[in-house]
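Before a colleague's protein record goes any further, I have to sign it off. What it holds is a sequence and that sequence's fold in token form. Would you go through it and say whether the fold makes sense for this chain? The record follows directly below this note.
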Amino acid sequence: MKNWAGNHHFAADRIARPSSVDELRKLVADAPKVKALGTRHSFNDVADFPGGVLVDLAGLDVPTVVDTAAATVTVGAATRYGDLVEAVDEAGFALENLASLPHCTVAGSVATATHGSGERVRNLSAAVSGLDLVTADGTLRRYTRSQDPEIFPGLVVNLGALGVVTRVTLDLVPSFSVQQDGFVAIPRSSVLDGFDELQAAGYSVSLFTPWVGDIAGLVLLKRRVAATVPELSEFHGGTRMASPPGANFTDWGVPGPWHHRLPHFRLDSVPSIGEELQSEFFVPRADAVAALTEIRALGEQLATALHVSEIRTVAGDDLWLSPCHGGDRVGIHFTWQPKPDAVAALLPLIQERLAPFGARPHWGKVFHGDGWAAERYPELPRFRALAGELDPRGAFRSPYLRRHVFGE
């Protein structure tokens, strides 16, 4: 079995598919090595455990429950965002944000701090207000933000190091509509000189660039709207596109429900390019232009292996292992051609350029260097201590976690 990108072959001994939480509890208690498996949309071995058991939770019967009084929704860990949003919208609510693709599971997305875009919008993990966790001894524990305030920020972005999440409760906001528009051929000088204004122009703004030439590429502008909004013929010197560049994109040019516009890609289509690798690095919001200028200097080298880069802003949070812990960040994302050797040669150059800004990598994407990520998280000692309490026998401590989190 491979991940989506095909660059990682899973090395676990078998896949278990429990049909009940009790069956899962016994499986976890008996297995010497165990790891929860989502939709396999990670580009490294974060979801693998060689010689262990991978647990597919899709067979658990966990209903989706919208609590209108509390403005929350509780879902099974293996629920995909694309399958959750309709029930939420029908109840008159919305999630604050969504990732660029709705294909991934809730538990897998929040465990790796997956995100969308927006200067005032946090990553998906920040919406978690409760979770059920099966720990190494098979105990099912319920944690909430209100009842466990001291450790809850360490439980959400957990990389599978603390146990197997079976159920997640997410905060909701009132439902809203969004209009998405695309603009091309924006001069690069307009992007750098007007970066703050550009990012503040919408609820969610994504900038796509190849890093070479004088044209920045495509900007996706997503605005919250109450009704039809005046059509923008241009944006920061760029020209409005009448329609998306591919059939797998969500609709442009007309208002629609939040869950039909915030993702870039449709649930019924292959997202992004398909055969690709991905990397992403987060730098402080205040350093955005300086960091982009550093990467721009590598443009010709990046072009040998790059499909496109996406630049997005994400609001800060208090989650211990979130790349946005402690303040607002800008995500510099790379969608690579399936050239692992070329990408591996470029990553040290990128990380060297971004090191002065305290860049943090996306946990589920490819980056260079064991221990490079961990040293950028001030709350890591607390997370290690929490993992020691919940998993004293190391049942969830995979090679990925040993390299990148525990410094072994």
In short: The two ends are 27 Å apart (CA to CA). Residues 65-175 form a domain with the Uridine Diphospho-n-acetylenolpyruvylglucosamine Reductase; domain 3 fold (CATH 3.30.465.10). The chain is about 20% helix and 25% strand. The longest strand covers residues 306-314.
